[in-house]
Amino acid sequence: MDLSLDNVRIGVIGLGYVGLPLAVEFGKQHNVLGFDINQPRINELTEGTDSTLECSRDELKQATHLKYSADVADLKDCNVYIVTVPTPIDEHKQPDLTPLIKASEMLGTVITKGDIIVYESTVYPGATEEACIPVVEKVSGLSFNNDFYAGYSPERINPGDKEHRVTNILKVTSGSTPEVAEYVDQLYKKIITAGTHKASSIKVAEAAKVIENTQRDVNIALINELSIIFNKLNIDTLEVLEAAGTKWNFLPFRPGLVGGHCIGVDPYYLTHKAQTVGYHPEMILAGRRLNDGMGAYVVSQLVKTMLKKRIHVDGANVLVMGLTFKENCPDLRNTKVVDIVSELKEYNINVDITDPWCSNAEAKHEYGLTTIEQPLANHYDAIILAVGHDEFKQLGAENIRQLGKAEHVLYDLKYVLAKNAVDMRL
Which of 55, 78, 132, 262 is catalytic? Predict the structure, then answer.
């Protein structure tokens, strides 16, 4: 390997929530080509706009060595490639490596001797060397760890978080040889002010990433189950959690919908790999089942409350406030609010959705759902506050209540409003 940190020319594959901030930071110091197969995405970035809102116009301008392209041929000038494509699950909740495999196939057509491919996409332990590298070898005709090399540095981006950014989150790094591991580590150190942690192998780095969100998923599942129990005992869950939280080592998790590109997806990568080696992961899958069932639970509780108030359910009008998977962020990936919408429609309920952060066109494209900008006043039999956007907090209970009929149910899933201002809390 003859690469030095001075002559590095980086290609970042995939310019979404992970890839763009990384390309911008590297683009302040090195020649970087930001590549994405989505030409409209390339067009908007070239014009200085980021629709994901992860990077401001000023931040994009600061990356003076960053160029954008959807032309594969432009990648041939690079010698380090960083892959940040999505790793979703399919309808059977099995890992879908299609974007990763296609990216590997593409890189096989452009890499040359001495190049390094660093994967950042979340995968199961072993996926980089077992699934991706053989594809690169086959297409390129080059030999792994002789002609080209690999690294793995899992992404830790938190969409919409302006406090924890790519530069101030400690980065795990790894490489396919000790020399490559050191090179990859030093490369990331040039932009990661929080520092790096060099793992002993690619598999260790892959495993570290996939358990980060698995741990969160299991903990949230526990709190969701406690919330169901406390509801049956007629005890307010938040009050219990606040009381328990006075102990120094109590973990501050809250019940809720578990969606997004990580927590609701990553555990399935680990359970898939576990099952291929003959182990059935009980706790992880139990947590997944519980969290995946929260949308149905929310609607069942809402319908019971409506019936107690003698509100006719069939043909009722319900407003769902928020569609994105988390607050103050336009990210719709794997949002579990759609589970609530689907379940409501099973009861023949008319559903309106309002969300100041999400794109109506994207909601239509991804889920076939339409959002409205201004909900009707005095129109709804029930209102579900599903996402804790600041705009909803600023509205306050009184203004939100004005959207409901004289008799309606206000269900706050995110503890946005005071307990005495709502009919139900999760």
Answer: 262
